[in-house]
Amino acid sequence: MADAGAHQSSRSRDLDKLLLRPGHLVGPAFEPGTELRDDIQEYARILVVGAGGLGCELLKDLALSGFRNLEVIDMDRIEVSNLNRQFLFRLEDVGKPKAEVAAKRVMERVSGVNIVPHFCRIEDKLDEFYSDFMIIVLGLDSIEARSYINEVACSFLEYDSNGNPREETMKPMVDGGTEGFKGHARVILPGITPCFQCTIWLFPPQVKYPLCTLAETPRTAPHCIEYAHLIKWDEVHSGKTFDPDNPQHMQWVYSEALKRAALFSIPGVTYTLTQGVVKNIIPAIASTNAIISAACALETLKIASGCSKTLSNYLTYNGVEGLHTKVTEFVRDKECLMCGPGIFMELETSDTLKMLMDKLGDEPQLLMSGVSVKHGGKTLYMQAPPELEAMTRSNLSISLFKLMEESPKGILHVTGTAGKPGKRQSCSTKLRVAFKGVAGIKDTDMAGGA
Amino acid sequence: MAEPKAEPKPEPKTKYDRQLRIWGEQGQSALEKASICLLNCGPTGSETLKNLVLGGIGSITVVDGSKVENGDLGNNFMVSESNLGQPKAKCVCAFLQELNDAVKAKFIEEHPVTLIDTNPSFFSQFTVVIATQLVEASMVKLDRICRDANVMLIFARSYGLSGFVRISVKEHTVIESKPDHFLDDLRLNNPWPELKKFTESIDLDTSDPVAHKHTPYILILVKMANDWAKAHNGKLPSTREEKREFKELIKAKTIAPDEDNYKEAIEASFKVFAPQGISSSNLKRILDDPCSEVDSCSSDFWVMVAALKEFIANEGGGEAPLEGSIPDMTSSTEIYINLQKLYQAKAEADFIIVGQRVRDILKKIGRDPLSISNDLIKSFCKNARKLTVCRYKSIEEEFNSPILPEMQKYLSDEEYSVAVGFYILLRAVDRFSANYNAFPGQFDGAMDEEISRLKTTAVSLLTDLGCNGSPLPEDLINEMCRYGAAELHAVAAYIGGVASQEVIKLITRQFVPMSGTFIFNGIDHKSQLLSL
C-alpha cells in the first residue's frame, strides 16, 4: 500500500472520492464538487426515528457519511438487554433515555456533528417538526410506529394539476428492520415508490391464539403462558392492568403458566419463553443491525447527494441458510389513500364540518366513521383524547368554508375507520375540497382526481 | 477508560437475552471460548470486530501497523481526534474493550503483511482469522497458512461502493442448521407400529361432536392413509386424480363447518403423498460422501454420519431417525400430549440405536467408544435430515483456475454483470497497485490515464483466466477508478456486518455460512454470491 501523502490526508479523504468526482453510474441530479460536500454538511437535516439497535448504528453511519445535522427521537430508556447490540450504551447508562445518550456518544467521537435528541413519543411532535427534515430514516420495530411516520410524511405530499407528485413536497423515507439473521431496507419516495400503506401486506400477521384453545385445550407452552397472561391475570387482579415491564407481574404469569402446564403435563414453560411470548420479543443481534443500518445510511447519502443510483426499492437480507440478498421493485398502489392524490369533494360554502364528516360516511370509496379532521397544522376536530374532543367540538357546527379561511379550495387530512363491513381498518387520507360558486376554481384544479 | 465497577453485574443472561434466543447457551459458550485475530483495523475490520465484541466473543487480537491520521477520523468510529498519530491497533482495541469488559482484548502494532511473511506460526493460536483489506498476494499466502494450521479464515474488503466477503475453510460441518422452513417429520406416509396402534385406538367416526372436532390431523391422516392403502394394493395416493379423491374423502368425514382439524388434515394431506425414505438431496449427498467411509482420522461428524448410514440401511428401514417433535395442531390436550410422547419415545429409541452404532464404529476405528457425547449424538439424530457440509476452495485455486463455465455464465448474465465486473475489477486493482504502487484513482489527477491502465489490467486478467473477449462495462471501470480505494464508512459497516454474521455461524456451528464469494454492489444493492 502506498504511504505517500498519508500525513496530509484530510478527514473527508474517502468520502471525497464519491462526492467530488464525476461518475457514470450516478443519480440524475448529481453535481460533484466541494459545494455538494459542504451543502450536505451544512444544510442536509436528517431525522433518525428510533435510537435502538438500528438507530445507534444509523447515527454513527450518518455522522461518518458527511451529515452534520442530525436529530433522533425515541421514547425508550436503556435496558440491560440492549447492550448486546446497541453499542453506544454502557452498563452505567441503563435507565437513561436512549436518544440522549446516543446523541451524546456520537458527538463525543465525531467532531463537527450536531445531534439533537428528542426523548418523547413520535406522536408528541407536530407535523411541522417532521416537515423540517430532508430525509426521515426509520429504525423501528413496530408496524404502528412506521405507519404513523408514513402517514405524516405522506401528508406533506401534493400533486400538481396533471396528477404528478410535486417533488418539493416529497419527503423521502428510508426504513430498516431486522429479526435475527434477517432484515430489510427500503427507500420510500412518496408518490413514486410504494409507501408503507401500499405494501402493508408485507408485514406478517401477529400470532394470536384462539381464546377457546387457551381456556379449554392448551397443548403447548405458549398456550399456558397466554392463558396466565390474558385470562388468569384478569380473573385474579380485577381492574389492575398487567405491566410487562414489571418483573413481579412477569414472575406471577410465569408461575401461573407453570401450574397450568403441570396440570396438563405440557412441557417447555420457562421464564425466558414467558417473557418472549408475553412481550413478543424479537431476537436481535449486532451484525444484522449493522448490515441493515449501513444499507439505509448509504441510501440516505445517495438521496441527499445523487452520488450513485438508489435502491429500487426494497432489499431483503437473509443469512439463516447461506446468504441471500434480493432487491424487489414493488409498485405503488394507485388507489392508496395514504400516498395517492386523495379524494376530491365538492362542497357548498354553507356545509358545516359535521356535514362533511357525514358525507365521508356515505362516500363509497371510504365509508369512514369515527372521523378526525386536520387542516394544515390545525386540528379541526379530534375524536380522542376526550380533552381534545371537547376543545374541538364547537367546530362541528361551523361552516368548513369559514374554518378553511374562506379559500376556494384546500386540502384536509381525515383519519378514521374505513372500508366495507368485515374489512374495516384505520385509514387516513387526503381530501381535496372545493367550494361551489367561489371564484378561482378552474377545471384543471380538479384533474388528476381520485 | 473503563473503571472497575463496584455494583454487582447483572446476569450476563439478561445482557445476551436477545441473542440467546437465537443460538442458545451452547452457541454463546462457543463464542465465549473463541479467539479472533483481526488483520487491519480500518473501518471494515473495526466494524466486524465491534459486532463480535458486543456479542461476547472470548478474545480478540487486533493487528495493524499504521498510525491514526486525519482520514481515519472520517471513516472509523473507533478512533477519535485525540488518537491522531497513535498506533491505530491500540486505539481501536481500547474502544472495543470499552464495549464489553468480558472480552479479552489485545493488540499488536505490526503490519499484517509483515506478519504473514515472517511469522506464519502466529496464526495457529486462533479460532478464526478475519483478514480485511488485504491484497491478492497476501490473501493467497495467508490462506495457505491457515489451511495448514486448520484455522478458520474469512476475508473482507470494502472498496468504494463495492466489496467482498469470502470464507476459506477446508470443511465446515453443521448439525444445527436451523432452517426457517423445513417439513416436519411426522411419518404420515410410513407410520411405525406404535403410531399405527395408537391410531387404531381412536374412533374417527365418533358420535361425540366435541371429540370429533378435537381429533388431531395426524390421526385422521394416518387412519385414512391406512384405509386407502388397504383398498389400493398397499399403495398411497400418487396420481393427481387419486390425491384429489383422497382429499374428498377427508372432506366427507367433516360433520360440522367449524372443524379446523379436518381443514388442517386437507392442508397437510401432501405429507401423505410424499415419497417414503430420504428425500433431501442434501442429505443424500452427505451419505454418499467419501468421508462417510471413516477411519481413525475422521471427525466426530463423519463418524456419526457413518452410524446414520447404517441405521438407515437397517433399523430405520430407509428412514432417518425420527425428529421427535410435532407442530401445534387442533386437538384435545390429552390426545396431543399422548401423541407428543409417542413421537418422543420413537425418537429416543432411534437415538439409542444410533448411539450404539456410533460406539461400535468408534471401537472399530480404534477410538474411545465414549468419545462422542450422548448429547451430541442426540442432537445429530434430531437434526439428521438437516445436516449440512460446506467446503471452500483454496483462494489460490480460485484465483488461478476459477470454474470457467460459471465465470462465462456470470459474464453473460445481466443479473450478474455488475457483480462479476466488480469481482474482476477488485482483483485487477490489486494487480494495478502491484505495478504502479498505488490503486487506480487513489490520488487526484490523471484519471483518464488510470482508467485506461485499469482497463488494460482487467483485460489481461480476463485473458489469464481464459475468458477472452468478455469485455467489462466501461462505466464500471470508470466507477472503480472514481472509488480510488476509498473505504467508505457505510460500505465498511455493511461488509463488516456480513463478515461478523458469517463468523458467528462458523463459531457456533449453527445456521449455514454463505458459500462462494459474496460481492457487494453498493450501486443498486444487487449483490451476488459467485461460485468460482
From TrEMBL, chain A:
Catalytic activity, as annotated: ATP + [NEDD8 protein] + [E1 NEDD8-activating enzyme]-L-cysteine = AMP + diphosphate + [E1 NEDD8-activating enzyme]-S-[NEDD8 protein]-yl-L-cysteine
One CC-aspect GO term: nucleus
Pfam families: E2_bind (PF08825), ThiF (PF00899)
CDD domains: Uba3_RUB
GO terms classed as biological process: protein neddylation
GO MF annotations in UniProt: ATP binding; NEDD8 activating enzyme activity
Function: Catalytic subunit of the dimeric E1 enzyme, which activates NEDD8.
Protein name as it appears in the record: NEDD8-activating enzyme E1 catalytic subunit
UniProtKB/TrEMBL annotation, chain B:
Statement: the UniProt record of this protein carries the keyword Cell inner membrane: no
UniProt cross-references to InterPro entries, sorted A to Z: APP-BP1 (IPR030667), ThiF/MoeB/HesA (IPR045886), ThiF_NAD_FAD-bd (IPR000594), Ubiquitin-activating_enz (IPR035985)
Single GO BP term: protein neddylation
CDD domains in the cross-refs: APPBP1_RUB (cd01493)
Alphabetized UniProt keyword annotations: Nucleotide-binding, Nucleus, Ubl conjugation pathway
Coiled coil: none
Entry annotated with the keyword Nucleotide-binding: yes
Domain THIF-type NAD/FAD binding fold, residue spans: 16-510
Membrane-crossing segments per the record: none
GO cellular component: cytoplasm; nucleus
Domain of life assignment: Eukaryota
Family stated for the protein in its record: Belongs to the ubiquitin-activating E1 family. ULA1 subfamily.
Function comment: Regulatory subunit of the dimeric E1 enzyme. E1 activates RUB1/NEDD8 by first adenylating its C-terminal glycine residue with ATP, thereafter linking this residue to the side chain of the catalytic cysteine, yielding a RUB1-ECR1 thioester and free AMP. E1 finally transfers RUB1 to the catalytic cysteine of RCE1.
Protein name stated in the entry: NEDD8-activating enzyme E1 regulatory subunit
